[in-house]
C-alpha cells in the first residue's frame, strides 16, 4: 500500500522479487494476512493462464466488486458465463471498419492543435515559433475523452473546447449529463478503486460515501444517453446533425448495441466499460510516447524524418495518410509505440484466479523449472511491467528507451513476454483501435511540430504509475490554462499573493473584486453580469452568480466553514459547480475560545473582573475553583474544530469523548481528510478515549450520558441537528453528570433549543454555558438570555483571527494545485448533506 501511495507499485514488485528471490526466480508465493497469492513474471506461466490453460482461470471476484460500482457490468468487469455473453455482444462491434473512424479522430486532432496554439498567445517564448511551456498529458486525456464519447454516444463532451458543445435535447425525468465534470468523476472513482484494490478483501474497511457519489455521477452521465436512445429508437442519430460530424449516419456504438439489447443497465455498463478503457489506454500511451520523445531528441528526429517521408508534410486539410494498422508494420513509428509500451506498459499488472485445482508449468521448488501446484481460489498477479524488466529477455540495456530493438535483425517477434493489452481469450478488444489512433495522432503531431523540448524538472525524475495506466513522472509542468479566478473578498488580498499565483500558475487569469463590508452581516452584493464572464474559479463568502451567469464556473472556494447560508441558493443547489468550504481555518482560534471561556468560568474570572471594576478584594470563592485535569470533555461534531479542541484538552489532562453522526469503527474511517494547519488537530483520529455515533435520540443520549464535565457543540446546522439539544437532552446530562456539565456552543444557535437552555441553566441541570452563537442572532436587547445566570455570551467572534484570511488563501492555493493535477479537491461540500 505504501508503494501504491507513492505511485510506484509495479517498480516495488520488481525490486522486491530481485531482492528477496534473486533475478533468476520469476514466480513466488506471497503470504498476505490469512491468505496467499502467487506473483509471476514468467511468460510460460502467463501463456498457460491466459491462453493454453485459460479454462482453469478467470478474473478475480474482487475485480468485479471493485470496478462494477463505477462502470457497471460489462466486457471488462464480468467473469464466467456473464463475460461470455458480454463478449458476444460487444466483440462484433470492434470488427467493423466503421468503428475506426479517422475522420472523427482528425476533427479532434484539430481541436488539440487549437488548444496547443493557445500557448502561443503573446507571452514571451524562448524564440519565435515556440509555445510557452505546458503539460501535454491533460490535453491528450481531453482529446481521447472527446473522441471516445462521440464514438460511443454520438455526442462529444468537448472537454478540449467547451464552446463547441451543442445544446442537448430535453429528456423529461433525466437531468442533462454533466459534460464538464465527467472526467473528474471518473478519475476520482478510479483513485478510490486503486485504494480499495490494494486492501483486497478488506476493502470494506474503507468508507464509501465519496466513492458512491462519483459512481452515481458517472451513471447519470451514461443513463441520459441510454434513455435518449431507447426513447428515440432508430431515430437516435437524427439528432446528431448539429454535433459537428460530417454525416449523421456514422458509427455510434450505443446505437448499434441497442439493436441487440434494450436493457438499460446492460447498455450503461457496456458503454461505460468501453469509455473508461477507450479514454485511458490511448491517452496514457500518447503521454508516455511524448514523455520519451521529449527526452530522446535522437529518436524524435529519426521518427519525424520517417513520418515526413512516408506521409508527407502537415496540411490542416489533408489527413495523415495513415488509414489502417497494416501500414504500421516495419515502420520506426511502430517500434516507438512498442518501446513506449515496454518501458511504461499502460497495464503494468494483471491478475487471474484459479477456478479449480490446477498447475503452472514453472515455479516449483527446489527446481524453478518444474511445475507448481495451484489450489482452487488462488490469485495470481501477472506483472507485465516486471516481464519487460528482465535482462535475460530484453538484454543488458533493458532500462534504456531504445526503439531500435524492435526492428534490428529483421524485427523482434514477441510472445507472452510482451502483452501490453493482455493476451489470450480476454485480450483487449480495442487494442488495434488504440494503436491506430495513437499512430495517427503521433503522425499529425510530428507533421506539425519539428521540435519538442522537455521542461519537466528534474528531467530524470523517476517514473510513476497511477491507477495502472496514467502517465506520470516525478517532474512536470503545472498549468491552469483556460481558467479565470475571481476573488470576491471583503479583505485586501495580501501583497504578493496574486503575483505568487501567477508565478506558480502562469496561465491562470486572476481578478480581484474588493467588497465594501461593515463587518456585521455576511458580505453580499449583486455584481454586474459582465464580471462573471469566463470565470471558472471563485473565492467568496456568499456572493454568487445566477445559474445563467455561471455557465463556465467549475469550483467555488468559500471563505466560511459552513454552507447553511447557501442551501437555498440556486447556484449552489441546482448546478454541478463544486463548492469547497474553509473547514479547518477556525480550529486554532475557536479551540482557544472554547478552552478559554471554560477555564474563565471555572476560575471565576467574570466575577473577579466585576470585582476589579467595582474596586474591591474578595477571595471567598477561591475554594470552589476547579482545574481541568482528569475532567471529561465531550465533543459533539468531531471535525476540524473538535479535533483541535481535543488536542488542547488532552494536553491539559482531560479525557476526550467524540460524537459523529456516522460510525467510525476503523482507523481509516477516523482519519481527517479535510484541511488542517500543519501540526495541529487530530489527523489520525486517535485522541478520543471513546467514540459515539448514530443519528437517533438514543444515540445522542448515550453520548450525553457518558459523564461530561465540558460539552462542546461543534456540529453543522442541518434539518437533522436543529434543536439537537432540548429539554430531554439537558435532563440526560443532569441525571448522569449531576449538574456539573458546562456547555459550550460554537456551532450555530438553533442547534440548541434556547428556551430549554435557559431552563436548564436556571434549574441547575447544567453548571453553566458559553455561547458564541445564539438563537435568535444577533441576540436582541432585553432577551431573557442576557440576564440568565452562569452564561458567557460573545457576539459570534470565536472564529475571528488575523490569520483567518491567510488560512483561507492557503486552502485556495492548495486546491488550485489539485485542480491543475486533476486530483480531488479538499473540503469538498456534500450538497445533499449540507456540509
From TrEMBL:
<dbReference type="GO" id="GO:0020037">
    <property type="term" value="F:heme binding"/>
</dbReference>
<dbReference type="InterPro" id="IPR001128">
    <property type="entry name" value="Cyt_P450"/>
</dbReference>
<dbReference type="Pfam" id="PF00067">
    <property type="entry name" value="p450"/>
</dbReference>
<comment type="similarity">
    <text>Belongs to the cytochrome P450 family.</text>
</comment>
<feature type="domain" description="D-isomer specific 2-hydroxyacid dehydrogenase NAD-binding">
    <location>
        <begin position="706"/>
        <end position="798"/>
    </location>
</feature>
<protein>
    <submittedName>
        <fullName>Oxidoreductase-like protein</fullName>
    </submittedName>
</protein>
<dbReference type="Pfam" id="PF02826">
    <property type="entry name" value="2-Hacid_dh_C"/>
</dbReference>
<dbReference type="InterPro" id="IPR029752">
    <property type="entry name" value="D-isomer_DH_CS1"/>
</dbReference>
<dbReference type="GO" id="GO:0005506">
    <property type="term" value="F:iron ion binding"/>
</dbReference>
<dbReference type="InterPro" id="IPR006140">
    <property type="entry name" value="D-isomer_DH_NAD-bd"/>
</dbReference>
<keyword id="KW-0560">Oxidoreductase</keyword>
<keyword id="KW-0503">Monooxygenase</keyword>
<feature type="domain" description="D-isomer specific 2-hydroxyacid dehydrogenase NAD-binding">
    <location>
        <begin position="596"/>
        <end position="667"/>
    </location>
</feature>
<keyword id="KW-0349">Heme</keyword>
<dbReference type="GO" id="GO:0016705">
    <property type="term" value="F:oxidoreductase activity, acting on paired donors, with incorporation or reduction of molecular oxygen"/>
</dbReference>
<dbReference type="InterPro" id="IPR036291">
    <property type="entry name" value="NAD(P)-bd_dom_sf"/>
</dbReference>
<dbReference type="InterPro" id="IPR002401">
    <property type="entry name" value="Cyt_P450_E_grp-I"/>
</dbReference>
<feature type="binding site" description="axial binding residue">
    <location>
        <position position="428"/>
    </location>
    <ligand>
        <name>heme</name>
    </ligand>
</feature>
<keyword id="KW-0479">Metal-binding</keyword>
<dbReference type="InterPro" id="IPR036396">
    <property type="entry name" value="Cyt_P450_sf"/>
</dbReference>
<dbReference type="InterPro" id="IPR047146">
    <property type="entry name" value="Cyt_P450_E_CYP52_fungi"/>
</dbReference>
<dbReference type="InterPro" id="IPR017972">
    <property type="entry name" value="Cyt_P450_CS"/>
</dbReference>
<dbReference type="GO" id="GO:0051287">
    <property type="term" value="F:NAD binding"/>
</dbReference>
<dbReference type="GO" id="GO:0004497">
    <property type="term" value="F:monooxygenase activity"/>
</dbReference>
<keyword id="KW-0408">Iron</keyword>
Amino acid at each position: 500500500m505504501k508503494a501504491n501511495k507513492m505511485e510506484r507499485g509495479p517498480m516495488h514488485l520488481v525490486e522486491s522479487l530481485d531482492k528477496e528471490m534473486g533475478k533468476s526466480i520469476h514466480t513466488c508465493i506471497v503470504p498476505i494476512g490469512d491468505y496467499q497469492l502467487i506473483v509471476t513474471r514468467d511468460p510460460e506461466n502467463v501463456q498457460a493462464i491466459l491462453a493454453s490453460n485459460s479454462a482453469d482461470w478467470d478474473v478475480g471476484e474482487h475485480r468485479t466488486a471493485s470496478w462494477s460500482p463505477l462502470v457497471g457490468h460489462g466486457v471488462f468487469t464480468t467473469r464466467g458465463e456473464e463475460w461470455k455473453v458480454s463478449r458476444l455482444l460487444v466483440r462484433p462491434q470492434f470488427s467493423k471498419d466503421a468503428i475506426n473512424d479517422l475522420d472523427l479522430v482528425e476533427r479532434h486532432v484539430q481541436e488539440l492543435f487549437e488548444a496547443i496554439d493557445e500557448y502561443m498567445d503573446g507571452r514571451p517564448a524562448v524564440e519565435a515559433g515556440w509555445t510557452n511551456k505546458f503539460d501535454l498529458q491533460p490535453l491528450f486525456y481531453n482529446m481521447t475523452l472527446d473522441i471516445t464519447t462521440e464514438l460511443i454516444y454520438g455526442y462529444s463532451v468537448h472537454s478540449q473546447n467547451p464552446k463547441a458543445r451543442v445544446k442537448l435535447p430535453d429528456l423529461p425525468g433525466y437531468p442533462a449529463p454533466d459534460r464538464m465534470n465527467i472526467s473528474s468523476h471518473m478519475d476520482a472513482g478510479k483513485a478510490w478503486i486503486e485504494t480499495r484494490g490494494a486492501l483486497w478483501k478488506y476493502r470494506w474497511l474503507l468508507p464509501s460515501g465519496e466513492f458512491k457519489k462519483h459512481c452515481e455521477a458517472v451513471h447519470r452521465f451514461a443513463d441520459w444517453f441510454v434513455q435518449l436512445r431507447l426513447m428515440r429508437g432508430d431515430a437516435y442519430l437524427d439528432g446528431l446533425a448539429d454535433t459537428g460530424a460530417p454525416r449523421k449516419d456514422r458509427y455510434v456504438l450505443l446505437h448499434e448495441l441497442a439493436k441487440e439489447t434494450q436493457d438499460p443497465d446492460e447498455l450503461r455498463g457496456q458503454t461505460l466499460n468501453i469509455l473508461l478503457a477507450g479514454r485511458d489506454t490511448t491517452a496514457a500511451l500518447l503521454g508516455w510516447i511524448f514523455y520519451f520523445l521529449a527526452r530522446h531528441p535522437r529518436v524524435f528526429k529519426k521518427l519525424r524524418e520517417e513520418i515526413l517521408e512516408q506521409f508527407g508534410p502537415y496540411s490542416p486539410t489533408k489527413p495523415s495518410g495513415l488509414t489502417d494498422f497494416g501500414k504500421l508494420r516495419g515502420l520506426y513509428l511502430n517500434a516507438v509505440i512498442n518501446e513506449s509500451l515496454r518501458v511504461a506498459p499502460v497495464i503494468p499488472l494483471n491478475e487471474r484466479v484459479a477456478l479449480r485445482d490446477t498447475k503452472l508449468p514453472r515455479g516449483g521448488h527446489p527446481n524453478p523449472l518444474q511445475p507448481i501446484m495451484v489450489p482452487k481460489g488462488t490469485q495470481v498477479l501477472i506483472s507485465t511491467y516486471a516481464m519487460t524488466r528482465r535482462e535475460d529477455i530484453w538484454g543488458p540495456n533493458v532500462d534504456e528507451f531504445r526503439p531500435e530493438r524492435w526492428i534490428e535483425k529483421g524485427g523482434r517477434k514477441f510472445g507472452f513476454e510482451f502483452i501490453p493489452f493482455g493476451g489470450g481469450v480476454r485480450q483487449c478488444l480495442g487494442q488495434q483501435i488504440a494503436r491506430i489512433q495513437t499512430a495517427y495522432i503521433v503522425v499529425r503531431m510530428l507533421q506539425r511540430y519539428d521540435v519538442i523540448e522537455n521542461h519537466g524538472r528534474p528531467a530524470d525524475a523517476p517514473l510513476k504509475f497511477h491507477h495502472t495506466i496514467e502517465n506520470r513522472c516525478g517532474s512536470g509542468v503545472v498549468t491552469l490554462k483556460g481558467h479565470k479566478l475571481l476573488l470576491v473578498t471583503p479583505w485586501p488580498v495580501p501583497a504578493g499573493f496574486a503575483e505568487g499565483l501567477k508565478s506558480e500558475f502562469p496561465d491562470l487569469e486572476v481578478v480581484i473584486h474588493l467588497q465594501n463590508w461593515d463587518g456585521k452581516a455576511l458580505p453580499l452584493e449583486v455584481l454586474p453580469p459582465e464580471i462573471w464572464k469566463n470565470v471558472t474559479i471563485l473565492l467568496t463568502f456568499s456572493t454568487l452568480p445566477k445559474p445563467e451567469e455561471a455557465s463556465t464556473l467549475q469550483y467555488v472556494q468559500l471563505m466560511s466553514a459552513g454552507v447553511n447560508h447557501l442551501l437555498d441558493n440556486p447556484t449552489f443547489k441546482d448546478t454541478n459547480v463544486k463548492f469547497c468550504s474553509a473547514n479547518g481555518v477556525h480550529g486554532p482560534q475557536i479551540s482557544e475560545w472554547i478552552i478559554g471561556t471554560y477555564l474563565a468560568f471555572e476560575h471565576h474570572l467574570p466575577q473577579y473582573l466585576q470585582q476589579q471594576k467595582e474596586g474591591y478584594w474578595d477571595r471567598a470563592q477561591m475554594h470552589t475553583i476547579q482545574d481541568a485535569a482528569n475532567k471529561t470533555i465531550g465533543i459533539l461534531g468531531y471535525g476540524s474544530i473538535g479535533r483541535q479542541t481535543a488536542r488542547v484538552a488532552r494536553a491539559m489532562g482531560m479525557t476526550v469523548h467524540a460524537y459523529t453522526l456516522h460510525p467510525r469503527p476503523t482507523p481509516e474511517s477516523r482519519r481527517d481528510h479535510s484541511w488542517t494547519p500543519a501540526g495541529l488537530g487530530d489527523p489520525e483520529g486517535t485522541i478520543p478515549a471513546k467514540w459515539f455515533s448514530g443519528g437517533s435520540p438514543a444515540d445522542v443520549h448515550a453520548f450525553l450520558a457518558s459523564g461530561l464535565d465540558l460539552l462542546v457543540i461543534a456540529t453543522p446546522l442541518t434539518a437533522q441537528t436543529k434543536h439537537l439539544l432540548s429539554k430531554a437532552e439537558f435532563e440526560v446530562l443532569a441525571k448522569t453528570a449531576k449538574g456539573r456539565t458546562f456547555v459550550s456552543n460554537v456551532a450555530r444557535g438553533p442547534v440548541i433549543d434556547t428556551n430549554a437552555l435557559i431552563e436548564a441553566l436556571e434549574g441547575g441541570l447544567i453548571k453553566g454555558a458559553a455561547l458564541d452563537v445564539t438563537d435568535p442572532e444577533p441576540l436582541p436587547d432585553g432577551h431573557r438570555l442576557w440576564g440568565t445566570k452562569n452564561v458567557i455570551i460573545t457576539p459570534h467572534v470565536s472564529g475571528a483571527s488575523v490569520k483567518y484570511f491567510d488560512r483561507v488563501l492557503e486552502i485556495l492555493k492548495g486546491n488550485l494545485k489539485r485542480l491543475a493535477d486533476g486530483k480531488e479537491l479538499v473540503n469538498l461540500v456534500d450538497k445533499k448533506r449540507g456540509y
